[in-house]
C-alpha cells in the first residue's frame, strides 16, 4: 500500500431517516482506536442526514460525506446541492459520478469532471467513480471504458487531498457478484498507470477504492489486492456490524 492510508467508505444511497443515526453511532463506538489509527472511515448518508451524522461522529475520526453535488456554487438549480453547502454542514468528502447517477440521472464524464472541480473548489475530497457494465466486460472493453472515464472525469492537477478514485463494476453493485481478485488487480493497475499519466508525481498517493458487493466475508481477499486502497461499500454500510467487519479486514 505504500504511503496510501486505506479508506473504507459507506454509501447509504437513498436509505435512512433520523431513526438511522444509531447506525452511525454504533460505527463510531465500534471502530477501535487501533483501527482508527490505521484507516480512514467515511459514511455518506443522504443529504438530509449529514448534519445529524456530523454531530454524531464529532470527536471521532469518522468522516461524513455527500453522495452527489451540483457543479456550481449556487444559483437557479432547484433541488440541487452545491459542494459549498455540503462543506458548510461539515461534510469532507463527496461521491462523484456513481453509476446510479450515471444510469438514472444521465451523468456524463464531462459532468463528472465539472463536479470534481466543484468539490475541489469547496475543499471537499471527490470520490470519482468509474466502472464497466456487464456487456462492456463481456466484450473485453472493461479497461478501455474505465480508463476513458478517468481520463475525462479527472480534473487536471488532482491531488490525494482532493481526489479518490473508486472502481465499481456496474454489474457488481448490489448484485452479490464480484470480479476475481485477478480481474480487480488488472483494473486497478491500469487505473494506477493512467493516474501516472494524468496526475504525475501525485499519482502514487491517490487512493483507488474497489466497490461492488463488498461484505465482511470477502473484504480480506479484496482489500489485499495490489493497488486496492480501500472499499466503497453500499448495502453492507447500512449495518454497523457489517461495515465494521469490513474495516476489520485491515
Ligand atoms: C455502491 O453503491 O457504491 C456499492 C458498492 O454498493 P454495494 O456494496 O451494495 O454493491
Automatic annotation (TrEMBL):
Q: Name one Pfam family in it.
A: TIM
Q: Return the EC number.
A: 5.3.1.1
Q: Which CDD domains match?
A: TIM
Residues that bind substrate: 11-13, 174, 213, 234-235
Q: Where in the cell is it found?
A: Cytoplasm
Fetch the NCBIfam families from UniProt: tim
Protein function: Involved in the gluconeogenesis. Catalyzes stereospecifically the conversion of dihydroxyacetone phosphate (DHAP) to D-glyceraldehyde-3-phosphate (G3P).
Q: Which family does it belong to?
A: Belongs to the triosephosphate isomerase family.
Protein's name according to its UniProt entry: Triosephosphate isomerase
**Which species?**
Methylobacterium aerolatum
